[in-house]
Amino acid sequence: MEAVAQLKLTLVLFFAAVCLVLVPSTHAKDVKYCDKKGDYVVKVRGVEISPDPVVSGKPATFKISASADQDIDGGKVIIDVSYFGLHVHTEKIELSEETPCPIEAGNFVLSHTQILPGYTPPGSYTLKMTMEDDDNEVLACISFSFKISFGSMLSALLE
């Protein structure tokens, strides 16, 4: 009887460990400025992606923590996505759709949620985000990497 109890405990611990590995999480990403010497009005402190890795066919949220040196009335966000170095997507979004405008000088969060198509291939992606004001002046330009896991594509196919 004790052997059965040990086997059950071993199986429970094994499945718990598997679940911890497979459950998507949120991680802060390393951010690189497009122009390392650029003096951007908006300073980005970090990017969080949830879930991480991204799951195709499911919502993915990119939260960008930043601070502005001055008030910003409005503008746009341009998102360029590359897959293993090949450009695959461009999107222009009004700044007011990502964060309440006007933005007062100081800290703010820009949040973008998107559902990637279920057929999106797994792998490494790079997202470049450029923020411009209403006069098309660049307020910030950053890039960071994110992943779509192989399991994401399988789950999309099984649904």
TrEMBL record:
Domain MD-2-related lipid-recognition: 31-146
Alphabetized Gene3D superfamilies for the sequence: 2.60.40.770
Biological classification of the source: Eukaryota, Viridiplantae, Streptophyta, Embryophyta, Tracheophyta
PANTHER family the UniProt entry points to: LEGUMINOSIN GROUP578 SECRETED PEPTIDE (PTHR11306:SF64), NIEMANN PICK TYPE C2 PROTEIN NPC2-RELATED (PTHR11306)
GO-annotated molecular function: sterol binding
One GO term of the biological process aspect: intracellular sterol transport
Keywords: Signal
Coiled-coil annotated spans: none
Protein name (database record): MD-2-related lipid-recognition domain-containing protein
SMART domains recorded: ML
Signal peptide start and end residues: 1-28
